[in-house]
Design brief:
InterPro entries: SMAD_FHA_dom_sf, YscD_cytoplasmic_dom. The chain has about 260 residues and is mostly beta strands. Among the domains are: about 90 residues, Tumour Suppressor Smad4 (Sandwich); about 90 residues, Tumour Suppressor Smad4 (Sandwich), CATH 2.60.200.20. Helices cover about 10% and strands about 35% of the residues. A 6-stranded antiparallel sheet has the order 2-1-11-10-7-8, with no helix packed on it. The longest helix is centred in the C-terminal third of the chain and has 26 residues. The chain is elongated and about 115 Å long. About 10% of the residues have low confidence.
Length: about 260
């Protein structure tokens, strides 16, 4: 698992262990400085359910994305953990793949193929549909940028979800699963955080599927049954039989 300490100092850790402890003791796997941090303050584990955070006994509550956790919680990559004065960010195992900044958005997105679900900030609980694009302007960006600071656009390119910053300063770029990105391909379950706003990407794998044949046949095209299939074969047989009969009739007429 990968973890970045954001405060009081910036350090990044990577561990192959399935479980690690975070606290102020030298015996903890990750030693955190700062007021309010106790020894073995928290344990972070990775199992079949995902990342599990457990709060140590007789310690101050931990906050995840500004919400208190007193015993345990299931986390996602991109969640921010506050342990006393220490700020810890849970990073995705892989840095997101950048998409071309000149990619042309699809003009149509099937219903339910892509949406953002607010899980933090003023839009918590809201479902924002991408149809065919979703533009997050000043009301969805960090405070203090101004109305003309740019925007964050979410869209699809040939059915593949993507995100692109438009004229946003680098300091305002979002994090995808904890990693800063100006443009990126998105996947179902990715967490986008920008300022105090947090979103989960809902992109069901089967929702954007198109039938490769039906999607590209013009409306005025002939139906397959009009140009092929058993009925066409019957007409060819009848025509062939008629030609053979005509040839035989001519041969008989010539002989007589």
């Amino acid at each position: 698992m990968r973890i970045a300490i954001l405060a009081p100092e910036k350090i990044e850790f990577s561990s192959a262990a399935a479980s690690i402890t975070l606290g102020s003791s030298a015996g903890d796997d990750i030693v955190l400085a700062g007021e309010g941090v106790a020894a073995a303050h928290a344990r972070l584990s990775l199992d079949a359910r995902g990342y599990v955070l457990e709060v140590g006994a007789a310690v101050a509550p931990i906050h995840v994305n500004a919400r208190p956790v007193r015993e345990r919680a299931l986390l996602h990559a991109g969640d921010q953990i506050s342990i006393g004065a220490a700020q810890v960010l849970l990073l995705g195992e892989h840095v997101c793949e950048a998409c071309p900044d000149d990619a042309e958005p699809d003009t149509e997105v099937p219903p339910g193929a892509l949406s953002l679900r607010g899980i933090g900030g003023s839009r918590s609980g809201a479902a924002l549909s991408v149809a065919p694009t979703l533009e997050l302007g000043a009301d969805g960006l960090p405070a203090g940028l101004g109305a003309n600071a740019g925007s964050l656009r979410v869209f699809c390119v040939q059915g593949r979800p993507a995100m692109l910053c438009r004229d946003l300063p680098m300091a305002a770029w979002p994090r995808i699963n904890g990693h800063v990105a100006a443009c990126a391909w998105l996947h179902d379950g990715d967490q986008i955080s920008i300022g105090a706003q947090r979103y989960l990407v809902d992109a069901p794998p089967d929702a954007a599927r198109h039938d490769a044949v039906d999607a590209f046949i013009p409306a005025e095209a002939a139906r397959p049954e009009d140009t092929a299939g058993p009925r066409r074969e019957v007409w060819w047989l009848l025509l062939t039989a008629a030609v053979i009969a005509l040839v035989l009739a001519l041969l008989l007429a010539i002989r007589h």
